[in-house]
TrEMBL record:
This is Competence protein. Residues 85-261 form the DUF6035 domain. The lineage of its organism: Bacteria, Pseudomonadati, Bacteroidota, Flavobacteriia, Flavobacteriales. Residues 328-547 form the DUF7829 domain. It comes from the Bacteria. It comes from Neotamlana nanhaiensis. Pfam families: DUF6035, DUF7829, DUF7830. Residues 16-81 form the DUF7830 domain.
């Protein structure tokens, strides 16, 4: 196993020569001669770190090495647990401290500090700082500035992270501010020392002593954070020559700085957040605007398709119904805002201007629950949509529209009867259509089509005649003619008619009036006729005349 000397370097007090132990004691014969001179007192070895005298010893294998005397004072090389590699680095640091450049800088710094305002107690390489454990450090330069203690350490050689952190933690514990004077420090450098120093500095301020100045002056290189045009961070290095009074002291991080990098970055971060909020808002606004444009365009195209389909002789709105069902909520809102059927009275206008070919258009318009409209809204003159319908002679099949209206929630009022009576010339037709409209008010939407079937209308006119004890919706003069007609033409519905007939005294009256027996013969024959099972009509009858179904 190779012998490792703990003290790699030393200084000969008599000559000032710095020796490397491994080289100096490499030759055993020469080592014996050196040992002889040492024991005669002609040569003295001093520790580069603490400047105390060292003992020259020889191992059992005749290897010469230097060590501290047992009763010597504290020294990092003596007390600290340093690895062989750390000892080598520390040795190089100590050697650098004895270089002409190092000596020049620390003396120059000290001399200028003595002449600087508010600086006192300047010590150059002879002041020991002790901590609570008795460990000590000797900075290159020590001084007091106002109420602050500052130590200056000059960096000329590579420094280990342990050395850098050790110095920083030691002085921080004592509340002393450490300033590294980086004589050959490169901001863009990637050496371990350069990276370690940059990592340790919170404020990213680095100092070089201006040895060409006539007074104490530092060249400060500092990092400054900026925001580019796209709101991204970028750092830029700046430099400025400063005097001691321009320095600031960060008590929390125990750091000296000129430019407050941390505050600058926090300020820029706040600005970036505000900028980003504006950018996000603008993006959102542009996104919303694009969405509005898309929706507007889609609705416009949809209206164009409606107009095109409406003008066709045979319109088919099935594709448009499917497309309308695919509209999302915002698209529907835009469509209904643009249509504004109730606000602009469009239903009345379309009915006034409608043609015989427009039924499919109205069916599409009224049947869709996605299109906002109030079919019971009055126009500016207080008229319902029936007024617009029955005053347009170009629309022939008005009952088809009536059926459509009721399927979409139209409510027939007493005042609407006048329109129907004015339109239909015969009393029986007036009675029929008024009755159908009255019944439609009480009919579920899904049974409206059944109600408007021709047979259904005739049957309900007969039922109503029975209940009112007067012929409604027919031209017949007497009851026998009506019931002979009913039993002959609507045998499959006779059970409903018979129920209404027998619910009053009219049945006995009809039997008495049937002198020739024609009705009774038909009634007897009816018993052999199989009744049609129309489920929709059965449901409709139950809804309209529940009192007859018990």
């Amino acid at each position: 196993m190779t012998f490792e000397r703990s003290i790699k370097s030393a200084i000969i007090e008599e000559t000032g020569e710095i020796i490397q132990s491994d080289d100096y004691f490499n030759n055993r014969q020469k080592g014996d001669e050196i040992r002889t001179e040492y024991n005669r007192g002609n040569i003295t070895f001093l520790c580069l770190g603490c400047k105390q005298k060292l003992s020259l010893s020889k191992s059992n294998k005749r290897t010469f090495y230097l060590k501290h005397f047992p009763n010597s004072e504290y020294c990092e090389l003596k007390e600290e647990s340093l690895s062989s590699e750390e000892q080598e680095v520390y040795s190089q640091i100590l050697i650098a401290k004895e270089s002409p450049r190092h000596i020049f800088l620390k003396n120059k710094i000290g001399e200028f500090l003595k002449e600087t305002k508010n600086v006192s107690n300047v010590r150059i390489d002879d002041y020991w700082v002790f901590n609570k454990e008795g460990k000590k450090r000797r900075p290159d330069v020590y001084c007091k500035y106002l109420d602050k203690e500052i130590v200056f350490e000059i960096q000329l050689s590579n420094l280990s992270q342990k050395y850098i952190l050790g110095r920083y933690d030691f002085y921080k514990e004592r509340g002393i501010y450490l300033m590294w004077i980086l004589d050959n420090f490169e901001l863009e450098g990637n050496t371990t020392t350069e990276l370690d120093i940059k990592y340790l500095s919170q404020h990213q301020n680095y100092f070089r002593f201006k040895d060409t100045s006539s007074s104490f002056e530092l060249n400060c290189k500092f990092k400054q954070t900026h925001l580019n045009s796209i709101n991204q961070f970028y750092d830029e290095w700046n430099e400025v020559n400063i005097t001691l009074d321009k320095l600031n002291f960060d008590e929390e991080n125990n750091e000296v700085y000129f430019y407050n990098f941390l505050k600058n970055r926090e300020d820029k971060l706040s600005i970036q957040k505000r900028n980003q909020a504006k950018i996000d808002q603008q993006k959102q606004e542009r996104k919303l605007e694009r969405e509005r444009d898309r929706i507007t365009s889609k609705v416009y195209d949809f209206f164009q398709c409606i107009a095109t389909e409406k003008e066709k002789y045979l319109s088919n709105f099935s594709a448009l119904i499917k497309e309308l069902n695919s509209f999302n909520e915002k698209e529907l809102d835009e469509l209904n805002d643009r249509l504004a059927i109730d606000k602009k009275g469009r239903l009345f206008n379309w009915l006034k201007e409608g043609k015989y070919t427009d039924f499919e258009f109205f069916e599409f318009l009224l049947s869709s629950s996605r299109i906002d409209k109030n079919i019971n809204k009055k126009d500016e003159n207080g008229n319902s949509i029936l007024w617009s319908l029955f005053n347009n002679e170009l629309i022939p099949s008005k009952e088809q529209y009536l059926q459509l209206f009721f399927k979409n929630g139209f409510k027939f009022l007493k005042e609407d009867e006048v329109l129907l009576k004015n339109h239909y010339s015969s009393i029986d037709e007036q009675q029929r259509i008024v009755l159908v409209c009255q019944l439609a008010n009480h009919t579920p939407k899904w049974l409206i089509d059944t109600l408007f079937e021709y047979k259904s209308q005739r049957v309900f006119c007969i039922v109503k005649s029975c209940l009112e004890n007067k012929i409604i919706g027919f031209k017949f003069k007497g009851w026998i003619a009506l019931f002979n007609y009913a039993i002959h033409n609507y045998p499959e519905y006779w059970s409903y008619i018979e129920t209404a007939l027998k619910s009053t005294e009219l049945f006995e009256t009809v039997i008495l009036l049937d002198k020739k027996g024609t009705f009774q013969n038909k009634l007897n024959n009816q018993q052999n006729v199989q009744q049609e099972n129309d489920k929709n009509f059965a449901q409709l009858f139950i809804h309209l005349y529940p009192e007859l179904c018990h």
